[in-house]
Amino acid sequence: MENVKDFLKSRMSNENFVKLTEIKNDRMHKFVAEAIELCNPKTVFVCTDSKQDADYIRATSIKTGGETPLKTKGHTYHFDNANDQGRDKGKTKYLLPKGVDLGKRIASCEKEQGLAEIRGFFKNWMEGREMLIAFFCLGPTGSPFSIPCVQITDSAYVVHSENILYRSGYEQFKKAGSGPNDFFRFLHSQGELDGAVSKNMEDKRIYIDLFDNTVYSVNTQYAGNTVGLKKLALRLAINKADKEGWLAEHMFVMGVHGPRGRVTYFTGAFPSACGKTSTAMLPEQTIIGDDIAYLRKIDGQMRCVNVEQGIFGIIEDVKPSGDPVIYKALTSEGEVIFGNVLINDGTPYWVGMGKDTPDEGINFQGKWKKGMTDADGAVPPSHKNARYTIRISALANQDPQINAPEGVPVGAVVYGGRDSDTCVPVEQAFSWAEGIIAKGASIESETTAATIGQAGVRTFNLMSNMDFLAIPLGKYIQNNIDFANGVKNVPPVFSVNYFLKNKEGKYLNGMLDKKIWILWAELRANGDVDAIKTPTGFIPKYEDLAKLFKESLGKEYTQQNYVEQFTIRVPELLAKIDRVEKVYRETVSDTPEVVYKTFAETRDRLNQAKNKFGEYISPFDFLNK
Ligand code: OXD
Ligand code: MN
Q: pLDDT (tens digit, 9 = 90+) per residue, 264-318?
């Protein structure tokens, strides 16, 4: 291409050319021009921050069948291919130049080969279609956390989702003049369509070029694979954060409301579908974000922001009794996209919504009838990973600091997982580093429907960020440990487990009990309660929990409940350390020595306790010792 501007002018309407070139960034013009040359669209639409452009995107998504309006004003639904219902880890790879290695656990392919392959999939794929170009900002705009981004796609559903989920960034780009050079770039095409749904699942590819801050995704529509700013940007951000000394985490951010009006901000990393959103949404607390946080040190304080402004949440089991705030927003007028739910008579239904679903309708695989089966057994009315997309501002519990440019102070960090037989419901780590290693870097979770593959398999998932890591694992752990250096008040680290069962396989906790663990952690973070020291950390005292259960849930909490839930299960805990250590020894060549040292120390403490008290130790034994 001889002259980028001339080329752009020849391929765009004057109105759109002017909109694009009001941004004076040559790198941006080149990215757009190359995408046009490769994909060969019929027309190009440049989306500014105006309401008019946002309305055009939503209307286009409806016109092209990417979304269909529902009865309630502002609501639409979208379907993905039956084989495109989750993040596709098998088709997601880093493009790495020869000689670069991210270790065994991170999927990659040779850059030139991968680029050639993916370019082949994009070649002329937008012929006859409109290319959409949209600008966003990760994190609040005009903040030390902001990362400007551009999304190019032929899917109005993708841009519409991003308009809900992210802060718009066109004006920010304009203001930045000729910079920045290192903004994130996302190129996506739905590929061939069957109706309005991506068809060629075999040719689905999600390739990430860390060295060019660019992600390519093709032949897919599921938002986790296509909405560039979500999990694709997280990968680029982890790489950028490593170079610049901050953290990009798979974490919620919430305001936990303690006594006398005190608010302590928590960040929490949980694997997908393990209670992360419902924790961030706990009654009487306030939400900043439910999925991705950036953490920076500012004036000796750890501070964080929500990268997003909306929620792409799992809808299964969202019902008035468990998630009243979301349920209300999902059943009120306002902009919501429902994904892969059951539709009957212009109304969305989902499994576990607290009322009966109709006997027929349409869902992600076409017409649906009660009793329908396929090769995998019963076809559910809504997919297990069916979703809703909504702005946090539509929720009654939005925290007032959500857009604060300097973010909020991190008052505590929580790591969660789906673990039926090992960890107690809540426990505080001995220190920041011990928490990073024994809580965050040791997360194992039973897999869920958020990714394609078998659910319920216990899987190693350090910091719940495993799927998105873009740097070697050992380096990532070390960065997390070092992040506390120079911080004046280092926040405490906790683990929580909402999924503990007894020997008979019965859950030991109710859905709302998570509120108690979080409120206890808030008291602990502020030095308001004592705790019991166990070999794996500090656990609550019975009387503090009983008081919280009574005051906050109006529930009687018996000593028997407490003992069942907080018994230290030595054989299971030792087995977990063995499993996790094996992962590090066999697959992570750069594991910091302190990780093994921490495992050895925990093992010793567990063995000593076993010699003294036996294999299953009541919390009262530690008190009476
Ligand atoms: C998500 C995920 O959608 O982690 O948040 O899959
Ligand atoms: Mn997530």
A: 999 999 988 888 998 999 999 999 999 999 999 999 999 999 999 999 999 999 9
- 160 and 106 belong to one structural domain: yes
pLDDT of residue 447: 75
Same domain, 548 and 569: yes
Which domain CATH number covers 496?
A: 3.90.228.20
Give the CA angle between residues 275, 222, 170 to the nearest 5°.
95
pLDDT at 322: 84
Closest CA to 496 of 477, 509, 478: 509
Give me ligand 1 centre to Cα 86, in Å. Answer: 9
Q: Are 484 and 433 in contact (CB under 8 A)?
A: yes
Q: Which domain holds residue 329?
A: 312-393
Among 312, 383, 385, 468, the mutation site with the greatest number of ligand 1 atoms within 8 A of its Cβ is 312
Check pLDDT > 80 for residue 452: no
Burial class of 615 by CB neighbour count within 10 A (0 to 12, 13 to 18, 19+): middle
Partner residues linked to 135 by β-bridges: 150
Q: Is the CB of 224 under 6 A from ligand 1?
A: yes
Q: Is 496 helix (H, G, I), strand (E, B) or coil?
A: strand
Q: Which of 206, 230, 249 to mutate to test the pocket of ligand 1 (most atoms within 8 A of CB)?
A: 230
pLDDT band at 10 (very low <50, low <70, confident <90, very high): very high
Q: Do residue 500 and residue 425 come from a single domain?
A: yes
Q: Are 407 and 499 members of one domain? A: yes
**CATH number of the domain that 210 lies in?**
3.40.449.10
pLDDT digits (tens, 9 = 90+) for 75-106: 999 999 999 999 999 999 999 999 999 998 89
Number of domains in the chain: 3
Catalytic annotation, pick one of 39, 137, 274, 304: 274
d(CA 325, CA 393): 12
Quick one: pLDDT at residue 1? Answer: 80
Q: Which ligand 1 atom minimizes the distance to the CA of 224?
A: 3
Interval between CA 615 and ligand 1 midpoint (Å): 37
